[in-house]
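tool=predict chain=A
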Amino acid sequence: MVLATVHRVKGQEWPTVVVHHAADELYPHRLAEDDEEERRLFHVALTRAKRRAVVTCGTRPSPFVAELTAPPPDHEVVRPGGPRPRVERAAPSGSRSARSSRSSGASDDPLADKSTVVPGVGMMLDDNGQQWTIEEVGPEGALARFGTATRRFPIGAKVVTVGRQRGSLQLDPGDPDGLAATAYEALRRWREVARSGKPAYVVFDDKTLVEIARTRPADTSELARVRGVGPAKLEQYGDAVIGLLGDL
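tool=predict ok
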């Protein structure tokens, strides 16, 4: 018998694999920010099995478990290069009609809503490798420029930002000029560099970045009042964050 984390078993296989405690706070992990990456990790766990995978999930199963028996069109779990292993659920799933706000994309703040992207002047949208810089935000959408070309991304259009936000373009009624959205995107891009391969929450989680973007502190003493910014993170990242905000 081999006991290991999912990360340690990539590239390995066994006749039977037990994916233990596939609960909603672990798949996707409550601190993770990319549900698609978490779904791929769950796929890795299942596809270590050559013939049989057993999934235990307790009373609050991962939403990925339901996809095993009723997979949505875009996320069918198939074992590359071989037959799909037979998957069994070894524990009752319980009933839970809704996911947490983080996983469903619903949020009290539009900036943190994972199903939408709030546009702001200066933000960069990635369209098939072309990086379009937003120059104007209005009721009809975002006007952006790539070199000498301009185009309008309409409200509701599916977009991806350079800071890895994904979703439909939506305006924030409380921030018509997108100032907070611009700051949030800039903070996300900075965090990608600052985390140096570590999980993003090791630097600042999304909720903390949203509050920083909304309040836009002018100095480190104001930044220290933001929830999620402790003394250690203030010392390590405070000057960089204040400098970034000052350049916007």
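The mean pLDDT is 81. Helices lie at 35-46, 63-69, 101-104, 179-194, 206-215, 220-223, 231-246.
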